[in-house]
Design brief:
There is one protein chain. It contains eleven helices and seven strands. With 270 residues, it is α/β, with parallel strands linked by helices. The chain has two domains: 70 residues, 434 Repressor (Amino-terminal Domain); 183 residues, Endonuclease, Chain A, CATH 3.30.870. Helix 9 runs antiparallel to helix 11. The longest helix has 17 residues. Pfam families: DUF5753 (PF19054), HTH_31 (PF13560).
């Protein structure tokens, strides 16, 4: 049966938060009291207890002391870790590491596998609400590690189609453009540009990815600002495949695309 993947908070967050709530309730400690003792607002404590936010070491240690848990809550620190990817993307990241082929179309942003560190930091650092510097560095490290897909052995066949708006984004600089050219030199990587004047309706409906694993399972990813859908439904996979084929048919070829990007690099030097 086709599977629809909906990510949620990590299980360790939910379990540790639930245990913190149980111990707090048993000890007749209010959220306000725990929040004041650990320097968090009651709403933040509530989010931790519900597994929406990661229970921090400070909150766990404070709860352990206030609730007389004898180290049982503090022990959760060894198991609760900050996830490197947003919850909605974790299923896709798992299958990406098993991929033998990737077909990727982007409308506005450089695909994560082709981003420079400077581009990553610009994206992560300017998100809303502003993340902590530690969070930005964790996400940059995680995304950089993902790029191993491009150099893996045996090679993963990667085809990227980029709408022209991707190349003209505010975070795109000469370094990023050159990095795209260098990436396109790999024998397992194809990069094609879709200029504005060649856009077809199929190209304006948002980004998407088709992925095939080593077990020959095929998945389709539809990605939005706050919602992602990863599906193995053959019908949805087929629709994505048809749409990608239409875009590829009107996009510039790899050689023409490289020349297009090279002209942009030259414009940056003027």
């Amino acid at each position: 049966m086709p599977v629809q993947y909906n990510s949620s908070s990590p299980g360790t967050w939910r379990y540790s938060g639930n245990q913190m709530k149980r111990w707090r309730t048993k000890a007749n400690v209010t959220r306000e009291e725990l929040g004041a003792a650990s320097n968090y607002s009651p709403d933040t404590i509530k989010a931790m207890e519900q597994g929406v936010r990661m229970p921090t070491a400070r909150a766990l240690d404070t709860a352990d002391e206030l609730c007389h848990a004898d180290g049982l809550l503090s022990a959760a620190k060894d198991y609760v870790k900050r996830e490197p990817f947003p919850a909605r993307a974790q299923d896709f990241m798992l299958y990406e590491q098993q991929a033998i082929s990737l077909w990727w179309y982007e409308v506005a942003l450089v695909p994560g596998l082709l981003q420079t560190e400077a581009y990553m930091r610009a994206l992560f650092g300017n998100s809303t609400p502003p993340p902590e510097e530690e969070t930005v560095e964790e996400r940059v490290a995680a995304r950089t590690a993902r790029q191993e897909v491009l150099t893996r052995r045996p090679p993963v066949a990667c085809s990227f189609m980029l709408y022209e708006a991707v190349l003209r984004g505010p975070q795109v600089d000469k370094e990023q453009l050159v990095h795209l050219l260098d990436s396109g030199q790999r024998n397992n990587v194809v990069i094609q540009v879709l200029p504005y004047e060649r856009a077809v309706p199929a190209a304006l409906s948002g980004p998407m990815v088709l992925l095939e694993t080593s077990d020959h399972e095929r998945f389709a990813l539809s990605d939005g600002q706050q919602v992602s859908q990863l599906s193995s439904d053959p019908k949805l996979v087929s629709v994505h495949g048809e749409r990608l084929s239409m875009i590829r048919a009107v996009a510039l070829g790899p050689g023409e695309s490289a020349s297009f990007i090279e002209r942009m690099v030259n414009d940056c030097e003027r």
